[in-house]
Amino acid sequence: MGPDDEIDHAGPVPPYRQLAAILAARIKRGDWHPDRAIPSEAQLVGTYGLARATVRRAIALLVEQDVVYVVPQRGTFVRGR
Questions:
Q1: Which parts of the chain register pLDDT below 50?
Q2: CB-CB contact of 32 with 38 (8 Å)
């Protein structure tokens, strides 16, 4: 998945994994810098046409992979390199 891909709702890869791959690719490309916020859950829901639960699951996967971290009441931030 590239950073400019769209979610394929009919494809074999679950949408949350597709979104996680897209966000990780955008981080790697440098769209968002370390310790800077990525778009909010609401923005990602609107951009990709996904349910909030799907976006949360994608973010949780990126947290597990140590790509981002969540600050309660502040947002999701890119983990420093």
A1: none
A2: yes
